């Protein structure tokens, strides 16, 4: 699994899966084209995550947050927001990564290249996350779509800051992942 190559050791992990009545190729294509923020749950939770940072910028920050809620959240927009596509094995696996201080208002993203991600530890005071999507064939017209998120803190100081943050956001993170999988399933099954 790609996630094992990029983050074999981790402090926290979250896994989710869903069955999809579509081919592996259709399901994989849906990962890269689906609007993950199609449902209200994802839009609200993403907006809540961005609210404290938006408030720091006053009315212009709130306006930017509201405008961002109106746009779609795709793999491409996540990449523009700091995630890196680390590696793909089309049509079965995709790994993306991000590094930063997620517990801060801005997230202070400083995501390195895939090569650095694989070969060096996270920068001091940061946490590194790898998130994958896997599509496993069950039969010719059905597959299992799964996602796993792993986070590794660079040091004790980062861990002391990240773990309380994770306790607060974990349930919302899980809801977002479930909704994303459902959105991908809908896209794949309607192709």
What are the main properties of this structure?
five-stranded antiparallel beta sheet; Alpha-D-Glucose-1,6-Bisphosphate, Chain A, domain 4; 191 residues; 5 strands; alpha+beta; 7 helices
Topology:
Elements: H1 2-6, E1 12-20, H2 24-33, H3 40-56, H4 58-70, H5 75-80, E2 84-89, E3 93-100, H6 114-119, E4 127-139, E5 142-153, H7 156-189
Antiparallel strand pairs: 1-5, 2-3, 3-4, 4-5
Helix pairs in contact: 2-7, 3-4, 3-7
How do you describe this structure in short?
By secondary structure, this protein is of the alpha+beta class. The chain has helices spanning 2-6, 24-33, 40-56, 58-70, 75-80, 114-119, 156-189; strands spanning 12-20, 84-89, 93-100, 127-139, 142-153.
Multimeric status of the protein: single chain
Largest sheet: 5 strands, antiparallel
CATH architecture level-2 label: 2-Layer Sandwich
Number of helix segments?
7
Assigned CATH class: Alpha Beta
Q: How are the strands of the largest sheet arranged? A: 1-5-4-3-2
Report the principal-axis shape.
globular
List the uncertain runs.
Answer: none
Rg over C-alpha atoms, rounded to the nearest angstrom: 17 Å
- SS elements, strand count: 5
Distance between the termini: 27 Å
CATH fold description: Alpha-D-Glucose-1,6-Bisphosphate, Chain A, domain 4
Helix content: 40-55%
Mean pLDDT: 89
Give the tally of structural domains: 1
User: What proportion of the residues form beta strands (DSSP E)?
Assistant: 25-35%
- SSE class: alpha+beta
Instruction: List SSEs in N-to-C order.
Output: HEHHHHEEHEEH
């Amino acid at each position: 699994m790609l996630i094992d190559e990029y983050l074999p050791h981790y402090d926290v992990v979250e896994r989710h899966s869903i069955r999809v009545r579509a081919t592996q190729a259709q399901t994989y294509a849906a990962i890269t084209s689906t609007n993950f923020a199609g449902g209200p749950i994802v839009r609200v939770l993403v907006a809540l995550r961005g609210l404290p940072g938006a408030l720091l910028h006053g009315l212009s920050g709130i306006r930017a947050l509201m405008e961002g809620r109106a746009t779609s959240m795709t793999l491409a927009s996540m990449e523009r927001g700091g995630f890196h596509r680390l590696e793909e094995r089309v049509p079965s696996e995709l790994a993306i990564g991000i590094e930063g201080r997620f517990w801060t208002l801005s997230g202070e993203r400083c995501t390195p290249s895939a090569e650095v991600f694989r070969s060096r530890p996270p920068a001091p005071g940061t946490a590194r996350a790898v998130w994958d999507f896997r599509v496993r064939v069950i039969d010719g017209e059905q597959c299992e779509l799964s996602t796993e998120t792993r986070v590794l803190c660079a040091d004790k100081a980062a861990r002391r800051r990240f773990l309380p943050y994770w306790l607060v956001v974990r349930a919302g993170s899980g809801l977002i992942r479930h909704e994303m999988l459902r959105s991908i399933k809908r896209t794949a099954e309607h192709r």
